[in-house]
Amino acid sequence: DKFKEGLAKTRNQFTSKVNDLVARFREIDEEFFEELEELLLQADVGVETVMELIDQLKLEVQRKNKKDTAGIQSVISEKLVEIYNAGEELDVRLNIQEDELTVILMVGVNGVGKTTTIGKLAARLLAEGKTVMLAAGDTFRAGAIDQLVVWGERAGVEVIRQSEGSDPAAVMYDAIRAAKNRKIDVLICDTAGRLQNKVNLMNELQKIHRVISKEVEGAPHEVLLALDATTGQNALVQAQTFKEATNVTGIVLTKLDGTAKGGIVLAIRNKLNIPVKFVGLGEGVDDLQPFDTEKYVYGLFA
Ligand code: GDP
Questions:
Q1: Cα 210–chain centre separation
Q2: pTM to 2 decimal places
Q3: Quick one: pLDDT at residue 251?
Q4: Ligand 1 pocket, 262 CB below 6 A?
C-alpha cells in the first residue's frame, strides 16, 4: 500500500539498522540503549521523544524481566505509538462544514510542496463527492499562479486568480464570492510563502484571515501548514514561526517518501501539539494520505 511504499527510505535505513543492532547485541544492556538512541536521533525522531522512548523501554524491559533483544522491535513500536498518542487528543480529520462553504488556507514556505498539496487535496475532496474551487493567493512568487492553474486543470477544478502582484486578500474576497455563487463545498486558498520577513508574513496572513472570516462565519475552517520532511529539524523551526504568525490547525508533511528521517513526524507532533493531518508520499495526484499513527509506526517495522 501507499503508506508502506512511501516509507521505504526510512524503513530501509532506520529499520534495517535497528534489526542489525538487535542481531548484534542479543543481550539488552546500557550500550544497546545508547546505540538505539543514536539511531532514533539520526531518524529525526527528536531528542525529547527519544529520551522518553528510551526511558519507557527501560521500564518495560525491567517490568517484563526481558534480558534478550529478540523481538524488541514490537516493544519499540508499541511505545512509539503510546508516546505519539499521549497528551491532548488531536483531531486528524479535516474540519469540513456540512451545508456551507468550507474555507481551507494553505500556508508554508516556497518549495515545500504547497501547490502540489493543494492539487492533491482538491482531487481527494472531489473523489469524496465535494465540489472544490482554488484561490491563487500567492500573488508574489513568479509563476505561482500559473502553477496552481496547472494543478486546477489536472484536478478539474476552477481557479480564481488575479494578476501577479495583486493583493492576496482581494483574491480571497473574489474567490469567496465566486464559491458562494456557485455553491461550492470547499475553497482551498494558496498563500505566499515568504519567511524572510516575519512581520510581513504575519501582516499578510492576518489580513487574509480578516477578509475570510468577515465573508464566511467561522472561516478559515482549517489553516494547513505544509512542511517538507526532507528538511528535518528545519521544518520544526518553520512550524514555530508559522504558529506564531497564524492559527495553524493542521500540518501536511510533504516528501516523506524522499527521506530516511521519517521520525520527524513524531517530533512535530510532540513539539508543536498540532496534528499531522496528511502526509505527502510522492509527486502524483494520489500521493496524499491521511496520517495514521499506527499504520505509520507499525509500517516502519513491517
Ligand atoms: P511550493 O513552492 O511549496 O508550492 O512547492 P511545489 O508544490 O511546487 O513542490 C515543489 C517540488 O516538490 C515539486 O517538484 C513537487 O513535485 C515536489 N513534491 C511535492 N510534494 C511531494 C511529495 O510528497 N513527495 C515528493 N517526492 N515530491 C513532492
A1: 25
A2: 0.94
A3: 96
A4: no
| Residues 87 and 153 sit within 8 Å (Cβ to Cβ) | no
C-alpha cell at 248: 495553524
Residue 120 in contact with ligand 1 by CB distance below 6 A: no
Phi, psi torsion values for 4, nearest 5 degrees: -70, -45
Which of ligand 1's atoms lies nearest the C-alpha of 280? Answer: 23
> From ligand 1's centre to the CA of 49, what distance in Å?
28
Q: List, for residues 33-54, the tens digit of each pLDDT value.
A: 999 999 999 998 889 889 999 9
Closest ligand 1 atom to residue 120 Cα is 20
Name which residue sits closest to atom 11 of ligand 1, judged by CA. 113
Q: Which residues pair with 216 in a beta bridge?
A: none
The pLDDT value recorded for residue 91 is 84
The confidence band for 194, taking pLDDT boundaries of 50, 70 and 90, is: confident
The grid coordinates listed for 198 are 516575519
241 annotated as a binding-site residue: no
* Residue 29 counted as an annotated binding residue: no
Question: Tell me, what's the pLDDT at 226?
Answer: 97
Rounded-to-integer distance, Cα 174 and Cα 172, Å: 5
280 Cβ closer than 6 Å to some ligand 1 atom? yes
Mutating to test ligand 1, I would choose from 116, 190, 225 the residue with most ligand atoms within 8 A of its C-beta, which is: 116
